[in-house]
Design brief:
284 residues, Rossmann fold, 3 domains, six-stranded mixed beta sheet, 38% helix, globular, binds adenosine-5'-triphosphate, binds magnesium ion
Length: 284
């Protein structure tokens, strides 16, 4: 059986002032422990959806629930939501504002009114998780882009949310920076955080996510990543291409080299393993 939704939007509609509807009657669920990738073309509403899920925007129709309980948009309700769901925005410069890395990362826990010792422990833990302990005293405005991104994520991690939502976390990172971030996210997942990310990178989504949600003009389609990201029709509707792993699997199947029942590769290593093995062709 599937896990109950930790955070859910039901029948949610939203439009910016004077703008056309961005989301209409949307149902969306974050299930505990399932790494979720949110994909869609520029302007499809990924950022808007993430802001609705984290309480920064309020749906005009429909509602947001946490473990089945409707979120209230008063101070108390929003504080409760923020201890459950944390959003890391696309541009770290929209998130960072304190003078030093440590001050920035402490801001959220201090605002919760936690004792100093608890704040210090959380900040130390978040800096270590993002591998930026050595940057603690650095002025945020002197950091590189990748360092600012890690600092912004550390600020969210210090809140110890159950759900961490990241808007395009790998955009602007170099290949090694992307790999380091994925290792960090794996660590957070292992320690029980549910991670959701928006990305345009279908290859990354296939490799990283358990589930993929595709934002299309006719609504959001969610499924297991290897299934959703092999649907050329949905991908085209969402303005995306087939991940290389799915494209490779199609080619191998067309040549009779891969059985329908054998999943395609998600990484180059998996392709090597497939090619080194009997290519699963005997099964089909
Ligand atoms: N603050 C705003 N005021 C008015 N319209 C907005 C605002 N933010 C976004 N929009 C509009 O809402 C729609 C959805 O934008 P959103 O930023 O959610 O898309 P996105 O999927 O995150 O795009 P991208 O891939 O470029 O980040 C777009 O048409 C955009 O122009
Ligand atoms: Mg966006």
């Amino acid at each position: 059986m599937s896990e109950p939704a930790l955070v859910a939007l039901r029948g949610a509609s939203f439009a910016y002032e004077d703008g056309p509807p961005v989301l209409r009657g949307l149902d969306f669920e974050i299930r505990e422990g399932r790494a979720l990738a949110l994909l869609g073309r520029n302007g499809s509403g990924k950022t808007t959806l993430m802001r609705l899920l984290s309480g920064g925007l309020r749906p005009h129709e429909g509602r947001l629930t946490v473990q089945g309980q409707p979120v209230t948009y008063d101070r108390k309700g929003l504080t409760r939501l923020r201890t459950t769901v944390q959003l890391v925005v696309q541009d770290p410069d929209d998130q960072l504002f304190a003078a030093s890395v440590e001050q920035d990362v402490s801001f959220g826990p201090l605002n919760l009114g936690l004792p100093d010792s608890e704040v210090r422990a959380r900040v130390a833990e978040a800096l270590a998780a993002l591998d930026i302990t050595a940057l603690a005293d650095r002025p945020t405005h002197l950091l590189s882009y990748g360092q600012r991104k890690r600092t912004a994520i550390a600020g969210a991690v210090a809140m110890r949310p159950r759900v961490l939502i990241l808007d395009e976390p790998t955009a602007g990172l170099d290949p090694e920076g992307q790999e380091r971030l994925l290792v960090t996210l794996d660590g957070l997942r292992e320690s029980g955080t549910t991670v959701v990310m928006a990305t345009h990178d279908v290859d990354l989504a296939l490799r990283w996510a358990d589930d993929a949600a595709l934002l299309t003009p006719s609504g959001v389609r969610t499924g297991p990543a290897p299934v959703a990201l092999a649907r050329t029709d949905l991908l085209r509707e969402a303005g995306l291409r087939l991940p290389w792993g799915a494209a490779t699997a199609d080619l191998l199947r067309a040549q009779g080299l891969l059985a329908e029942s054998v999943p395609g590769p998600r990484t180059p290593d998996e392709l090597v393993a497939l090619v080194a093995g009997p290519l699963g062709a005997s099964g089909g």
